Amino acid sequence: MGVNISAPYIYVCTRMRMRKSKLLPKEEYQRMLNMSVSEITRIVGESEYKQEIDELGTTFKGIDLIEVALSWNLAKEYQKIQEITPGTLKQFTQVYLRRWDIQNVLTILRGKMQGVPSGKIKEILVPAGSLDKVALDRMLTEESPDRIIEMLKDHRMFPVLTREYPLAKESGSFSHMENELYKHLYANIINDAKSGVKGGASFLAYIQLEIDIKNVKTLFRLRADKVDEEAREMFIPGGSLSLNDFASLNAIKDLNEFIDMIRANISNDTLHVLLDEVKAKKGGVQYIEARLTRVQLEQMEKMSKRNPFSIHPILVYLEKKKYEVFNLRALARGKESQLPSEKIVDYLVM
Q1: What is the pLDDT of residues 108-166, one digit of tens each?
Q2: CA 228/CA 5 separation, integer angstroms
Q3: How far apart are alpha carbons 31 and 2 in whole angstroms?
Q4: pTM, to two decimals
Q5: Model confidence over 25-62: pLDDT tens digits?
Q6: CB 310 within 8 A of CB 199
Q7: Domain-by-domain residue ranges, the chain?
Q8: Each residue of 45-55: b (16+ CB within 10 Å) or e?
Q9: H-helix or E-strand containing 227?
Q10: What is the dihedral sign for C-alpha 31, 37, 38, 44?
């Protein structure tokens, strides 16, 4: 790598490691499990979220304050990272963050469909993708989901949205649409990664890992829900599994046989350790999903150590930051709903 290219890469990757070192440690979450919502708010207000808690404290209280402060902080952090990231790293970061467009649009559509007030929907939006705050605010002013989809006619999601929306409207469920949007997103990301851009191979390795974990999570969820229909449609291509592998795995009734087959199809030591743990402990689907996310993060850390000046340190930080927000939100909501700590802990990614 030429000197002129490596300096900005070294700078941004070092910055990511510094940011990552400020994320809350596992022990902090364990302490918070014994706290009330107001105590959690106080701890959050003394951390990297102080500015948002201070700014929003006059308008929001309790759980709402935590929700909005976390969303604001995450969006601002992601926007900042896009600003400081150079060259192809910026391109990959932006491609990667497009998943927030899917999440934000679906949050708005679901909210509108269920009659949730716009202000409430806005609290949990994270304008980190290509749809900025202005675009999302405009969508929130629309009452009809049909009009919201119409507003996205220039967006790359539009073909999938128009194809899937009539069915979602009729069934009242957006899960099929969500799956199709992710398939479309991953197909585009894989094309971008394979387009011969420098660093594309590192990016592709991570995306394939993410698809594998997503498919394994889906298989565990299908087992828990005991759903047979449409299982093949839930499959996301691009990872280690083929559609036929996925369908065969879904048809296996015995848990041990199911786990052995996943091991045979996906060679990943960290995943294998988890699968052995699941065999022994047989935790619920929430516990398994949180642990699968942990596997993904541990693999990303390994990739990041092998490629210290690549897209990996950026992706590791983006994901870990997202899960910090996810954990704090799960803790606050769990406490608000008076769930016992041992139930909340199953949802946390630690």
Answers
A1: 999 999 999 999 999 999 999 999 999 999 999 998 999 999 999 999 999 999 999 99
A2: 51
A3: 47
A4: 0.92
A5: 999 999 999 999 999 999 999 999 999 999 999 999 99
A6: yes
A7: 3-98+197-347
A8: beeebeebbee
A9: none
A10: positive
